[in-house]
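Subject: Glucose sorbosone dehydrogenase structure
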Amino acid sequence: MTGRTRRVERTVIVRRRAVTAVLAAAALLLTAGCSSDGEGAPQTDGSASPGRTTARSSPTGTDAAPSPPAKGSVKVVRTVATGLDSPWGLAPLPDGDLLVSSRDEATITRVDARSGEKTELGEVPGVAPAGEGGLLGIALSPGYASDRMVYAYFTSASDNRVVRMLYDEDKPAGRQLGAPDTVFKGIPKGVIHNGGRIAFGPDQMLYVGTGESGDTGLSQDRDSLGGKILRLTAEGEPAPGNPFPDSPVYSYGHRNVQGLAWDARQRLFAAEFGQDTWDELNAVEPGDNYGWPEAEGRSDESAFHDPLAQWRTEDASPSGLAHAAGSLWAAGLRGERLWRVPLKGTGAAADPQPFLKGEYGRLRTVVAAGGDKLWLVTSNTDGRGDPAKGDDRILELRVT
């Protein structure tokens, strides 16, 4: 196949996605109102991702207050891999290589962290990509060294669910994933707000960020799995010590949880999309109510846990979240920048500081790689972005 043919096919794929996304956006505007997530379909109000400063016009926002000056530094050490299609989740392997999921292709690929060589493990059966749904977060089992299990969160034809699969490196490429074993199911699905981030915490429990699937009432309903952070055993049972008896719900009142991370003191933090006004970074406490849809951002209601930090929606749409060098780092989709939120010893946060504004387009996932090192995944081939040559990519960063 010639390079010209590949480029033509790539253009057709992107255009098809754009047409599908526009139709989805029109349906959502009729059923759910306007949303500023920076996810899924391009907005009809002109809020789709602006171009990058490296080759196109700079991103702009409507917040009258200027961004605070950036302290510390972020250095892009190298581009680890290019040519990824709709990457979403990232899981570092013990040997340093990386597993990355494709939302739309429903595949998991191994990336050699030294050479950037990509090897497809296989396609995950049962994934039904549409809108913001598809194959989303991935995580390794706490016992991966012995059980070789990879966990994944995906949208099926009926719900969002968590599965686990055996990764058998001895099998041929493309057939290295075992049949998915469903660990947990029944999470509400929608064209929008499917959540999708999963991570094993310091307590070896599985934490799952969910969205309210466009039905805002689910967030305040403790009997619903939508708009929650769930805490499960590795087998998918409600974890011991959860705040509500026999329930997987750990916290509620969330809109669309997209990032989970723990600091050095084992405190849990979550990044969450707002609707039209405020995106949130939350310090998560068991049993607490984070306010949606009654509150977006900070409020005067004592019943709601206020966010640790908040952003205008055009500046962030925080998807991934990681902790490194004493700060939380949030990857911004619509905002097209990496946010640093320095933590104080009390658990409070200093003012967020932006880096890489517009340089790499939409940023989907950020993962700590030890010390002052981060992995950063772009998201420009997801139907909303403006793909440049080489997109999508994984970057290695050094931060202070």
